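Handoff note, outgoing to incoming analyst
You'll be picking up this chain. Sequence as last confirmed:
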Amino acid sequence: MSAQTKTRPIPVTIEHAAKKTFASAADWPGWSRGGKTEELALEALATYAARYRPVAEEAGLDFAATVSLDDLEVAERTEGSTGTEFGVPSKPTDQDGRALTAEAAERLAQLVTAAWSTFDRIAAAAPEELRKGPRGGGRNTSKVIAHVMDADRAYANEMGIKIRQFAPGDRAPVAAMRAAMLDVLRAARDGAPLGGRHWPARYAAHRVAWHALDHAWEIEDRTEQGG
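Most recent structure output, in case you need it:
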């Protein structure tokens, strides 16, 4: 995969609602940021390129050394939902409905794997007690881990995979769940929803990777210096 350059704009989708907008890189699962407006969401996306770059590199993919607003090109805009307002990129787009070759499907799986690895590594290194928000809120590390695992079980269901409840720290069922999800993502296919549900493969990969990275970066940001 060749690196993105200034001569090759990065396609971005915009999901907008009244109070929240998400900008998501159409070909880079997990690279998605929100803001109150489209302009702010795009600015956040460009800023977070530096944090996303190690994820792409862990997946074995080249990524731009720098990304500016000029490198981003809006390929699609879609109306969001209550989920968008809540803070989740919730609507599959036409870009997500594109067919997948075997090579493209493997690329999705590599990026999702790297997102999970990033989350696991950051969570394992973090203290249990995380810095609270301005109103004293926010989960501690073990609660964030449990939340991400529970969410992945729900995401697996959206992909047509049934996963029984398990303890967040039980690595065997976590590994088995992730392997089953990656098997689905690795299959070349058209852009139809997975498992007779609502999510095409590209959106499933994006949602899973975004959620893992969003909480990985949250843990980083809420870790006290020296903690």
